[in-house]
Write a structure and sequence with these properties.
- This protein is mostly helical.
- 71% of the residues lie in helices and 0% in strands.
- It contains three helices and no strands.
- The radius of gyration is 22 Å and the shape is elongated.
- The termini are far apart.
Length: 75
């Protein structure tokens, strides 16, 4: 039987559920979710977003801001 001759007997929902189950069984929950997220195209322009958030800050400056943020959250 060729691919063109095959007929689908499952609904779209059933195919999706079987696919998710196969991913989870093969990869585990965490890696299955990571895989699914990689398929998503995302939104916006990452480089524009990065410029808006970080500007010309160095890695050390970004690290220091993050460290201070987490210390302030502990208070």
């Amino acid at each position: 039987m060729t691919l063109a001759e095959q007929r689908s007997t499952r609904s779209e929902v059933a195919v999706r559920e079987a696919g998710y189950l196969a991913l989870v069984q093969s990869l585990g929950y965490t890696d299955a979710l990571r895989f699914i997220v990689q398929l998503s195209p995302g939104q916006g322009d990452y480089l524009e977003w990065q410029e808006q958030i970080f500007g010309d800050a160095s890695v050390d400056e970004i690290y220091e801001q993050a460290r201070k943020h987490w210390e302030d959250r502990k208070k």
